[in-house]
Design goal:
heterodimer; A: 118 residues; alpha/beta; Immunoglobulin-like; 18% helix; B: alpha/beta; six-stranded mixed sheet; 8 helices; globular
């Protein structure tokens, strides 16, 4: 049991290195599973999300008020999303991104980009 | 929010009432227009207009262009023409070129000079490039612009491009440094008026109705015998005094927002038209020769 766990952790470590090596290359072949963040009642839902590199997140504004999505590091920023509007962003680089709505900057969300989905 | 709460709030903000600042007591006091007429002669009269949100089409106001035009007509019809008008931001609702075209066209109807500064609704996606192209003051640097009129020094600041981790507005060190240089040559006796979009006092930090580095402005203003800070953003009249600095936020020409913390979120308040008109409007400001400040609210109703 102990040895099989050790084996598994080695596999994960190797996968991790592989992901790091290819993380910045946009991968057209990776499964483009669409993940959604809904905006409603001045909240991003889910507020904390984990995706893999190459994955696209669809931000959909269900709220009665307009909102935006802007990363604190300046790497992505949506136009204004009014009620019913959506905007997609594909994450190609590893890291944790904190984003806000620039119209209501007390609204915050986090997206962590991990290695490629195998 | 419940209408009852809102109306009670309106009662204490005193829309339609003339306010004067009693420097001795450090308080704003409501007074009738008749009393005010007997007071000292004005040194400077001007108008503050705010949060027109051109492009907004929702139940809180389906015709924001019509109410904005009504405000402009009322300003043009004032018995004593103001020296200038300052729009304290959120000219547009979503920074769209057509919205900017429309608001520029409407503002061109003003008969007196106009100064503007951006709200967060005017800088979406381009950090204010389009706003600056259309409304650039020739002297605006780091988001700051200053001018003098009738012995009063006026400064407009930008605090909607970057936000502190707490979600509050931010002026930023380059602009604060420029403000310090701008104020340095003035004597303590020069009346100073500062304009910003997001309030420079803690109106309601939980909703971002505050500016994280505003204290640095207060420090710079503390030596002046008369310092006034006029802001927009929160679509309602709130007044505060800190030391000798007098703060006041303005109503919108479009729609009211809830009183701080009333309801779960700062969404537009839907009111019957007559009540909405009473809760929206513009403000005229008089800085009297004896430094007394007068704020007069002009509801659109």
């Amino acid at each position: 049991m102990v040895s099989s766990l050790k084996y598994l952790s080695n596999v994960f470590l190797s996968l991790g290195f592989l992901s790091l090596a290819t993380a910045t290359i946009p991968n057209g072949q990776a499964a483009q599973t669409l993940t959604s963040v809904n905006i409603d009642h001045f909240k991003f839902m889910p507020g904390v999300l984990q995706v893999h590199t190459g994955q696209t997140v669809n931000f959909f504004n269900k709220d009665g008020d307009p909102h935006t999505i802007a990363s604190q590091d300046g790497s992505f920023e949506s136009p204004a999303l009014d009620t019913g509007d959506s905007w997609k962003h594909t994450f190609t680089k590893l890291g944790t991104y904190t984003y806000i709505c620039t119209l209501h900057p007390f609204m915050q969300g986090n997206i962590t980009v991990t290695g490629e989905k195998q | 929010m419940k209408r009852g709460h809102f109306l009670r709030h309106m009662a204490w903000t005193g829309l339609g009432v003339l306010w004067t600042f009693d420097a001795g007591a450090g308080l704003f006091r409501p007074r009738s227009v008749g009393e005010a007429a007997a007071a000292s002669l004005p040194g400077l009269n001007f108008v503050q207009i705010s949060d027109s949100h051109i492009g907004f089409h929702k139940p809180a106001n389906e015709q924001v262009d019509v109410t904005f035009q009504a405000a402009i007509n009322a300003i043009n019809a004032l018995k004593v023409p103001p020296a200038f008008v300052v729009h304290t931001g959120d000219l547009t609702h979503l920074s769209k070129p057509a919205e900017f075209d429309q608001v520029k066209q409407l503002l061109s109807g003003l008969k007196v000079p106009l100064y503007t500064l951006p709200g967060e609704h005017d800088v979406i996606g381009d950090r204010g490039k389009l706003f600056n192209d259309l409304f650039a003051g020739k002297d605006r640097r780091e988001g700051m612009q200053s001018w003098d009129h009738s012995g009063v020094h006026c400064v407009s600041l930008t605090n909607v491009l970057d936000f502190a981790a707490t979600g509050q507005g931010q002026i930023g060190q380059p602009q604060l440094d420029l403000l310090a240089k701008d104020l340095a040559p003035l004597s303590n006796e020069t009346p100073v008026v500062i304009f910003s979009h997001i309030p420079l006092f803690d109106a309601y930090p939980k909703w971002g109705w505050a500016t994280s580095d505003a204290k640095q402005v207060n420090t710079l203003l503390s030596r002046f015998a008369s310092a006034t800070v006029l802001s927009g953003h929160i679509h309602q009249v709130l007044q505060r005094t800190e030391g000798r600095i007098q703060f006041a936020t303005a109503t919108s020409t479009a729609f009211p927002l809830p009183a701080p913390g009333v309801g779960e979120q700062p969404s537009p308040v839907v009111l019957p038209e007559k009540e909405r008109r009473a809760a929206t409007g513009f403000r005229s400001i008089s800085l009297m020769s004896d430094r007394q400040l007068k704020l007069e609210e002009h509801p659109l109703g």
